[in-house]
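Hi there,

I know you've been waiting on this one. I reran it after we fixed the sequence typo, so this is the corrected version. Both the input and the resulting structure follow.
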Amino acid sequence: MVALYSRSVAEPLAIIRIMEVIFSFASFSLVASTGHIADSFWTGCMFTWGFCFCITIFILLMEFTGLSSKLLISWGDFTTVFATWATLMMMTASIVFSVIFTCLTCVLSIGASVTSSLAFILYATEVGLTFAKPGEKSGFLSTAPGLLKIIEVFVACIIFFCLDASLYSSLPWLQGCVVGYSVFFILATLVIISAICCPSTPFSASFNKALIWCNRLAVLMYLTAMVVWPFFQNNSRPSNCQRLCSWDKLVVVTFMTILNCIVYALDSAYSIWLVFCVRSQ
């Protein structure tokens, strides 16, 4: 028999999640009412609003019924991962939709941009509420290294989304960069999955040290990619380049490569400080 925890609905975090559901559904509905657009970025925005709406409803139902406490996974880490991903996805969707699909006379599109931005603020607030405070016992993904791992995976997903096989299929250097993106994306994803599925098994010291070396290798790979991608890219935008052409996507890949290099460097530095400075005391 499933018991209903009505008190959990009145908690601040639950109220925030209910507002997230409302605004993500509003964004999806407003854009859907304007008609379908055959564009991958439009589809990505619609997926973001629909995905965040469905998962947030799922989280609310699990906590309202108390079933979340009966799961074998780390529920706190799961909700933290989703809230962080939803924050990043909502931020990206709000920017992309506002820049590409919104005009001064598009009332519904402007409304969708506003509600999407409000949903982004709400998800960011949730991340702030669930993030581990100093001295507080929490799961790995609620700490700074866990948050950096989530960001690394998300940025890599944006890189993959913007990659076009025709841009690197005939260039071995660029193919090597794509392989590097894939390897470190898989490793970061496995770390996140392990943290969620094995909450009672903390990472060992040897695993943490191996993770530090992986972060170092990732920094070297992304530093190399930062040089390689601009080298094979034209300095000026082609005159025949329409909206979001291949040149634009290359710019996004280059920028996201720089961003992920910084994130991996921060992850590596913070992990070294934790392993060799804090835990050795």
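Quick highlight: The longest helix spans residues 246-278.

Best,
R. S.
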